[in-house]
Amino acid sequence: MADAPLFDTLTIIGPGLIGSSILRRARQTGPLARRLITADSAPAVLQRARELDLADEVTASLTEAAAKSDAVILCIPTGAIRPVAAAILPHMRPGSILSDVASVRSTLGPDISALLPEDVSYVPAHPMAGTEYSGPDAGFATLFENRWTLLVPPAGTPSEAITTMETFWQRCGARTRQITDQYHDQICAMVSHLPHLLAFTICDTADRLSADLRADVLEYAASGFRDFTRIAASDPTMWRDIFLTNRDVLLATFERFEKDAHLMVEAIRNGDSEAITERIRRGRRIRQGLIENKQA
Ligand SMILES: O=C(O)C(=O)C[C@]1(C(=O)O)C=C[C@@H](O)C=C1
Questions:
Q1: 179-212 as b/e: b if 16+ CB within 10 A
Q2: Which ranges form a coiled coil (predicted)?
């Protein structure tokens, strides 16, 4: 017998890359929810969500959507989560679940817990998946397939609500694991935030070259540089919020990187072939590890 839908009514606030991928997954493969609502404050996003038929109901009223739902997932930039949660939580039903997909936890757990009405659970979950594209057109139903989703529920969250969200993400195709906020932010600073900082900076450096050299760099960019440009094409608001919210952990991670980059530069300066080769070898081993874990 097919599984019953996990939720009666599910609202996705922010049908962008992640939000619209969840909606597409729910539409195509179910059984995630019997009824889907999507809400956003931007009229152009709502119009596109309607054109793409992403949900049964498309609305500008976040509070009305929340009041009708047994689960609400905030798929909006990190900086918008606190104010939007504060606005919708008083309208949420007893027994319902609030979630978000923010890339930085910082103090979100305690902050949102302090706003939670009796009988509403907060079970944030961060899918380690994405592309450089954003908006309702960017999503696709298989985005979470075989990718990790890190669940970061605050202490004291009812275990049934955690199990429900874990099942939700597994039905989206993801592997799930529960970790603490602090550990989450440390991992993401290394695997996601630092790489984006480097990519934005490398592209910025290229952009500041003299006009002729810049033009030729872009002309002949079918090389290592091209892979950085993919990451650097990511959404500015989202990444500004991530950098500012995970500031301390990101800066500590950057300092480690700076030291390692300096060691490599010194090895090059000193013509230390052995040190250079050893560092490159370690990089290759990371890549091989990802391939073995089927994450590359
Ligand atoms: O694959 C990409 O292009 C992404 O930027 C996805 C990526 C990442 O850095 O890996 C970006 C942010 C999310 O929080 C998780 C995943």
A1: eebeebbbbbbeebbbebbbbbebbeebeeeeee
A2: none
Taking the centre of ligand 1 as the mean of its atom positions, its distance from the CA of residue 248, in whole angstroms, is 19
Tell me, rounded to whole angstroms, the distance of Cα 244 from its chain centroid: 15
pLDDT in tens, 257-290: 999 999 999 999 999 999 999 999 999 999 898 8
Report CA-CA distances (Å) from 136 to 18, 68, 226: 9, 22, 25
CATH homologous superfamily, domain 183-292: 6-phosphogluconate dehydrogenase C-terminal like domain (1.10.3660.10)
The pTM (predicted TM-score) of the whole model is 0.93
Q: How far is CA 1 from CA 6, 132, 276, in A?
A: 15, 39, 58
Alpha-carbon span 207 to 210, nearest angstrom: 8
Residues sharing a CB contact under 8 Å with residue 163, sequence separation 6 or more, in sequence order: none
Q: How far apart are CA 196 and CA 203, in angstroms?
A: 11
Q: 7-179 — its CATH code?
A: 3.40.50.720
pLDDT of residue 132: 87
| Domain ranges for the chain | 7-179, 183-292
Which of 132, 150, 192, when mutated, tests ligand 1's pocket best, judged by the most ligand atoms within 8 Å of its CB? Answer: 192
Q: Which residues of the chain have pLDDT under 50?
A: none
